[in-house]
Amino acid sequence: MNQPFNRGKLFTGLLSAMTLATLMISNDVSAALGQLTSQKQVGVREGQVVVAGTKGQYTGKMIVRSTKAIAWAVLTDYDNYEKFLPDVEESRVIENNGNNKVFEQIKVIQAAIFTRKSPIRIAVSETYPNKISFKMTSGEIQSLQGSWTIQPLSVASEDQPIQLLITHQVTVDPGNKSWRGIFYGIYEDSLEDTLQAIKTEINRRSSMMK
């Protein structure tokens, strides 16, 4: 004999599942911010772009309100980086093998006493829609590698903007000991500007959905 359909139990079950998912996301976010000082954690939650680290080991974090698709589209828009990243003069994909790509760009390095254009090639491995890993394959510095991750702060929606935590981790080594200190100072300033530019571009594209 068929049992009667119980809408109340179904609703309670769905609500419990959503509550559990929200708690899990909240715990994940707390863990993701745990490596930051309490002051920097507050900064991220208040909408600031925050960069932590020193001497070539950096982590940047920011919260944006967008869909994962838009955030992903901005981070992977390698052919148009020069249109919204402040230190990129040219950028284009030169190899495209699905989730694995190689792009090259001309970065403009600016300091108080000089301006230098630096070519670089970067290989990326994409895991849609959560993570992009990258590694330099050629350039004037010794090494550069890291990742971008996109993490929802609420139950994910395909087409509705939600709060997303974007984390950028990078390890960079200029190689030349004579100018390491100068390089790191320039890179740290450039990194914060890059993160802010990406946040601005995500916000711009998200506003076009309204």
From TrEMBL:
Signal peptide: 1-31
Record's keyword annotation contains Cell division: no
Domain Coenzyme Q-binding protein COQ10 START intervals: 71-178
UniProt xrefs under InterPro entries: COQ10_START, START-like_dom_sf
Presence of keyword Signal: yes
Keywords, comma-separated and alphabetical: Signal
The protein's name: Cyclase/dehydrase
